[in-house]
Design brief:
By secondary structure, this protein is an alpha/beta fold. It has 2 domains: about 5-35 and about 105-235, Rossmann fold (3-Layer(aba) Sandwich), CATH 3.40.50; about 35-100, DNA polymerase, domain 1 (Orthogonal Bundle), CATH 1.10.150. Helix content is about 45%, strand content about 10%. It has a 6-stranded parallel sheet with strand order 3-2-1-4-5-6, sandwiched between helices.
Length: about 240
């Protein structure tokens, strides 16, 4: 057990750390899809006259579509958009995203998933995505890793990230305590959500953000890529 984990246990006043489940974000952690999402958001927002950069897209990663649009409307106009307007914007963003080829896996993440599966851990995906065929997509890319019912998506959440709701739901579905799970996230808002839920959170900076963005949201450890996570896993736990 390393120093960061010891400090985490002491800070939270948890009785121990007994790892039984690993919760993975999807975009930017399982799939290298964030460049596509970011470009699609920027193009759609700009067409509606809203200022939104690629860096903004990465900072807002993890929010539901409605929350992303409302956040921007409040920031620039001082009011939330109406439902019809939000739907038009999200439909346009989805159209642009779907024009890109299927995203590739994040390098080395499948190796990490198989390693944790072999250790007997429950593996969940916790995402703000509302992709209907999500399990089918995961099975195709990561066979024998994810199971039906072991995921939390936009369909499950009323609030979503950065609220702790998604990770609290994952804990409940897994039937484990807060000191029995670890989160692997790349998005500041996802890190915020996991930390607020009381979970040990590993930040993997797979995008364009400065590492400080993850650190100031409370990530317990930050890595540059999945290879670093794999090499450090045994030392951490």
């Amino acid at each position: 057990m390393n120093l960061e984990l010891k400090n985490f246990i002491a800070e939270k006043n948890y009785p121990t750390f007994d790892l039984k489940a690993a919760f993975f974000d999807m975009d930017g952690i399982l799939f290298d899809s964030m460049p596509y999402h970011a470009q699609a958001w920027v193009k759609a927002m700009n067409e509606f006259g809203l200022e939104f950069s690629l860096y903004d897209a990465y900072l807002n990663e993890g929010r539901t579509g409605d929350s992303t649009i409302d956040e921007l409307f409040v920031k620039q106009y001082g009011y939330v958009s109406d439902a019809a307007e939000r739907q038009k914007m999200y439909d346009l963003k989805s159209q642009y995203f779907n024009e890109f080829p299927a995203p590739k896996q994040i390098p080395n993440v499948f190796e990490l998933l198989k390693m944790l599966k072999n250790k007997g851990l429950q593996i969940f995906v916790v995402t703000g995505s509302a992709q209907v065929s999500l399990l089918e997509t995961l099975d195709k890319n990561f066979p024998n890793i994810f199971e039906k019912g072991k995921m939390v998506t936009a369909f499950d959440c009323k609030i979503g990230k950065p609220d702790p709701e998604p990770y609290l739901m994952a804990l409940a579905k897994a039937g484990v305590e807060k000191w029995q799970a670890v989160v692997v996230e790349n998005a500041p808002l996802g890190v915020h959500s996991a930390v607020a839920a009381g979970l040990f959170t590993i930040g993997v900076n797979t995008g364009i953000l400065k590492p400080e963005e993850l650190k100031k949201k409370g990530a317990n450890m930050i890595f540059k890529n999945m290879r670093e996570v794999i090499e450090s896993w045994k030392k951490i736990f």
